[in-house]
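Sequence in, structure out. Go.
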Amino acid sequence: MFGAEAKTGRTVVAVLEPGDEVLESLAAACRRFEIGSAFVPVFLGAFTELTIIGAEHPPADEDAPLPESVTVRNCEGLGSATVAPGANGPEVHLHAAVGAKGDSSRASAGHVLAGTVQYPTEVIITEVVSPQFARRPNERARGLATLTFALPEEPG
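Output:
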């Protein structure tokens, strides 16, 4: 475990509109307000489809990162995210739990790969002024890129 005290800056409220691509719209909101590092405590809405890392059947190795994805159509749900600077601007790491409306609200949850907004989706983005976030491969997490930041100096 490692950690640092976060100093937050501005809070931005964004509404994603029908037809918006979820991840690109969140990144665009961060670019618009010049936010490099952030967290998203509130992300809720309805989607024509949301593709998440997941599997229809139990994987052979439950500890390994899943190589598959599932697309949930006509769903509603909520999630949260972190945002870190990337090579092409803000990179959004969003997880969501959604229920498929046409399947008795059967739930699916996981890392969001893509999605399209069906009805306005409400998002609150809180800027993190320090520490500066980054994503780097983490060997302890099977090489997955994970959130990291510079650790503060130990007092004296």
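Check: DSSP finds one helix and seven strands in the chain. The chain has a mean pLDDT of 91.
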